[in-house]
Amino acid sequence: MRIGEKRRLRRDPLAYLDNLSRRSTTGLIQLPWGGWCVSDPVLAQTLLRSPEYHAGKSGFFGDLLPTRSAQVEVGHAVRNLLRAGMPHYRAALTRAVAELPTASRWPAAGTRLLYRCLADLLLHPGTPAETRKLLQRSAYGGVAVHAPHVWQRARAEVLRARLLAAVTEQVGRRRKNPVGEQRDVLDAVLSACPAGTPDRTVAELHLMMFRAIMSPLSTSLAWTVLLACLHHTAPTPWPWPADHVVREALRHRPVAWMVGRTLPRPLDFGGTTLPPGVLLSVSPYLLHHDEHLWSAPQAFQPERWATTREHGPYVPFGMGPFICAGAAVAHTLLAESLTALCDSARLTVTGGDPRPVMAESTVPRPFTLHRALTSPTTT
């Protein structure tokens, strides 16, 4: 990639992707960082539903689990644990929002807010204090959410290794002293793993789920707050339900801007023959911004969700066999969080920029959220 292209990509990765898509005449674009992306919306949806494309295990788990069925079991167990923990999350959310400062720096503040509400579900209070402290440091220190700077990522790797060792020890303890109930995500993972799964593998799966919960929730909540504040600057309450704001934010700035799989066999696509081993992706961002499928796709319009008309393909959590098992729970957590932030308060932002930072996901640039109470809160 030439220096000019790198600069354009860094300046606005989504605009860069839009430009690549417009220049394509085959419905398929070669990505400068490797692999291919299906840019034609009809072909992209066909691919996402293709049994051949989804053959085998999910790449999300790598080689940690031996079969697709084992992957499904773990994903469903964690989803069910979070769903059952919603009452605890709501109670913790009320306290956390009440203690939020008048001005807070996001996305970091959103990460801290969510972790406070999820901490006991990730590792229950009976877990050794040192292990829970390591998990907290990991949530804030670049393990749960990708750190932007190289030196931060280096420190995060050291922290991750310490956390992995501590959780591995905890797995051994829980196996020796089973309690018969699922108290947290680690219990859920442990109960769903096949018999004989090594302690360290269980710990690695727990850390994987820790990141899979914290990173998209933190990033999506930050986008939701930022986009809504940028598009409603009047000194009046937002005119949209929280559910509609969340849906539109996930459409406008889907966290997973690329969903890809390595081809198991040769595939002819868009007039191009792709060999096995090539990474072929679909972009939820491109699908969500296709002008033939959406009305005013570049505009942030939560009101579009008041009806079921003029909606294009909505795939913020993927589509087909490998759609995220926790999609509905994640949406509920985001809507609950946004509702709590807006309760008896007016939200405004300074320093907001809708262009994302290119990382593992579409991360918003730092901004300051101002939360001014409009009436006394009650407890």
Write the layout of secondary structure elements.
Blueprint: H1 3-11, H2 13-23, E1 28-30, E2 36-38, H3 41-48, H4 68-84, H5 86-98, E3 103-106, H6 108-122, H7 129-140, H8 150-176, H9 185-192, H10 199-231, H11 242-252, E4 259-262, E5 267-269, E6 272-274, E7 279-282, H12 284-288, H13 327-342, E8 345-350, E9 356-358, E10 362-364, E11 367-373
Parallel strand pairs: 2-7
Antiparallel strand pairs: 1-2, 3-11, 4-7, 5-6, 8-11, 9-10
Can you put this structure into words, describing what you see?
This protein has a single domain, classed as Cytochrome p450, CATH 1.10.630.10. Helices cover 49% and strands 11% of the residues. The protein has 13 helices and eleven strands. It has helices at residues 3-11, 13-23, 41-48, 68-84, 86-98, 108-122, 129-140, 150-176, 185-192, 199-231, 242-252, 284-288, 327-342, and strands at 28-30, 36-38, 103-106, 259-262, 267-269, 272-274, 279-282, 345-350, 356-358, 362-364, 367-373. The strands form four sheets. A four-stranded mixed beta sheet has the order 1-2-7-4. The chain has a three-stranded antiparallel beta sheet with strand order 3-11-8. A two-stranded antiparallel sheet has the order 5-6. The longest helix is centred in the middle third of the chain and has 33 residues, at 199-231. It starts with a helix and ends in a 6-residue tail after the last strand.
Short summary:
49% of the residues lie in helices and 11% in strands. With 379 residues, the protein is of the alpha+beta class.
